[in-house]
Design goal:
By secondary structure, the protein is of the alpha/beta class. The protein has 2 domains: 8-94 and 192-227, D-Maltodextrin-Binding Protein, domain 2 (3-Layer(aba) Sandwich); 97-188, D-Maltodextrin-Binding Protein, domain 2. Helices cover 37% and strands 28% of the residues. The chain has 9 helices and 12 strands. The chain has helices at residues 34-46, 57-61, 64-67, 82-87, 127-135, 147-156, 166-175, 200-216, 218-227, and strands spanning 11-16, 25-27, 30-32, 49-54, 73-74, 88-90, 95-104, 119-123, 140-144, 161-165, 179-191, 194-196. The strands form 3 sheets. Strands 4-1-5-12-6 form a 5-stranded mixed β-sheet. Strands 9-8-10-7-11 form a 5-stranded mixed β-sheet, sandwiched between helices. A two-stranded antiparallel sheet has the order 2-3. α1 packs across α8 (200-216). The chain binds arginine. Arginine (ARG) binds next to loops.
Length: 229
């Protein structure tokens, strides 16, 4: 079986951190999204079913979710970073991302200077929070456990802006036209699918499957489904 260690009970247990629309989110009782479709291709290739496990984001980035055997893979719109690469195994990049700042459409916040003296929500353990802590010193950064709580804080008026990855914030603004992305921050991130440190056999499989999907148009079809207009 290509050197991939036997998976327990014919399942591919995939950790994620909900909700991160359109990468992984609940719809009609199912977890769906771009990442889910991509990992389904891997499960199919291995002849098993993908079983999604919702877990705190930092459980994934620290490797704890793999070390306890809670999951075989993780797909969570997760950026490949040097720090994370030390403790988990990453696939090749499968999606380009940058940071973005969302606020009320009429807020006038259109650059970093415009955030001075304002409060901004960031998600625990993410690259967006790291960016805010390092670069947005003139703003009050407030952390929330997940994306929906960050967006809710904006809608409640608890904060005046949200920093997170461009894909999820543009998706939200598309459906909530009172809000808009005021500006993007070119952080040049790439999402990777992860496994337990040292489980290169499974990661090689992931890279093969995604590589093939890019070549035969399957990747573009999935992209179109979740990001097409
Ligand atoms: N890309 C960012 C990071 O890796 C945010 C990911 C958040 N993902 C999630 N499923 N909530 O830090």
């Amino acid at each position: 079986e290509g050197g991939v260690p036997l998976l327990e009970e014919g399942k591919l247990k995939v950790c994620t951190h909900l909700s991160y629309q359109p990468f992984q989110f609940e719809r009609d009782g199912d977890v769906v999204g771009f990442d889910v479709d991509l990992v389904d291709l891997v499960a199919e290739e291995l002849g098993v079913e993908q079983e999604i496990v919702n877990t705190p984001f930092e459980t994934i980035t620290t490797g704890a979710a793999f070390n306890t055997g809670e999951c075989d893979l993780a797909a969570a719109g997760m950026t490949i970073t040097p720090e994370r690469e030390e403790v988990i195994e990453f696939s090749e990049g499968y999606f380009d991302a940058n940071q973005a700042v969302l606020s009320k459409a009429d807020s006038g916040i259109s650059d970093e200077a415009g955030l001075a003296g304002k409060s901004i929500a960031a998600q625990t353990g993410t690259t967006g929070l790291q960016y805010a802590e390092e670069n947005l010193g003139d703003a009050e950064v407030i952390t929330y456990e997940d994306l929906p709580l960050s967006l809710q804080a904006l809608q409640n008026g608890e904060v005046e802006a949200v920093i997170n990855d461009n894909g999820v914030l543009y998706d939200f603004a598309k459906e909530n036209t009172d809000y808009a992305v005021g500006f993007d921050i070119q952080t040049g991130e790439q999402y990777g699918i992860a496994a337990k440190k040292g489980n290169t056999a499974l990661i090689v499989k992931v890279d093969e499957v995604i590589g093939a999907a890019r070549e035969d148009g399957t990747y573009d079809g999935i992209y179109e489904e979740w990001f097409g207009t």
